User: What shape does this take?
Amino acid sequence: MHLYGTQQIENGHLTIGGVDTVALAKEYGTPLFVYDTALIRQRARGFKETFEKLGVTAQVAYASKAFACVAAYQLAAQENLSLDVVSGGELFTAIKAGFPAERIHFHGNNKSFAELELAFATGIGCIVVDNFYEIALLKEISEEREQKMNILLRVTPGVEAHTHDFITTGQADSKFGFDLNNGQADEAFTQVKDHPYLQLLGLHCHIGSQIFETDGFALAAGKVMAKMGAWKADHGFEATVLNLGGGFGIRYTEEDKPLEPHIYVEEMIKSVQREAKELKLSMPEIWIEPGRSLVGDAGTSLYTVGSQKTVPGIREYIAVDGGMSDNIRPALYDAKYEAAIANKADQVKDATYTVAGKLCESGDKLLIDAALQQAEAGDILAMFCTGAYGYSMASNYNRVPRPAVVFVESGEHQLAIQRESYEDLVVNDLPLTLKKGE
Ligand code: LLP
Assistant: This one.
């Protein structure tokens, strides 16, 4: 059984951060997300130290769409990370958490006027500009407020990477960013370069998610650096920042063979240094935006096993007290995970179960034909590597309250997000006031 971070098996039980997961399930209830914060810190430090070791000025921005809450933002702040937010809601939460505004970067392909105003009002460090409509809004807001704002232009370099493959296309069919190859990026540059309040730092690109190779990053860096070279030659503009996005892959199952995080960074740095030398550009700051690779394998979901069903000759189901409402990834992406029975963690996995959720949807299955210990009602099922895009994509489908989230470290544990109550579910509901037949 693969154990992540500080996970151990002690007295037959799975522990995380020195805390018995069965005891956590008992104390906080299930479904429960448990985060190994020491592992998040280790990953954050790994990225930052690699840049430091190689003497490259950098910002490592946590892509908080992977998992956002006040305590997560405070943890990111403690680790001196920067922050990538993609909505007014994430920005608001970060500010509430006391995250230093100057280290917040704001993304999104349709930021509203109100969201951009919030970005100016809170004085964030950078807006990653996605499209021409946004440029117009930014000009209006910055001129009205007479306030400067750092910006990056997000470009689509025509490189799309996923897991082991990447594809290159002349024209990138993406809803995000300015196309690097068809003149859009140049037009955006022209529109912002001399603006008195919009301060263009450089370019951003993000090529995909769950990437296991470095070639895609190198290729994208090459294309973006070439554009920077052209803008220097043609306009005397020298970009100081190159943001290469996130997407570093992690291990969900034994099929996944990700690189060590530092390898992605080292290879990235090498290719930017090579390009800078060739194009006679000064080395830009490199910014990255890891989400999944900071929090993914630090998260474990705990569920309580309930009903079982045998479909003779086909499969054996066990059902748990959560499902697609707290982890939509298996249903949405056919995502694969590994699991264990937390209270029988030292026993052999000699059973095969399909783990069904409790939601009214046939596709609500968390694991298909998974190797597990023999299960019975009341057992605690631990599903590994659910820290990224689990809680953050959770819903109230079937009016199921969203789970609680607990942080554990060095034998201590604390609630980071309370479990939703039934009362929480109706807090925004209003009674019917339309009069019948009028
Ligand atoms: N930067 C940008 C601009 C992004 O769009 C993303 C992810 C990231 C950084 C962080 O990527 P990461 O390091 O986490 O791969 N819900 C999907 C993933 C969506 C990713 C969206 N953008 C999933 O559950 O797999």
The chain has two domains: 8-30+298-426, 37-295. The first strand starts at residue 8 and ends at 10. The chain has a mean pLDDT of 96. The chain is about 30% helix and 30% strand.
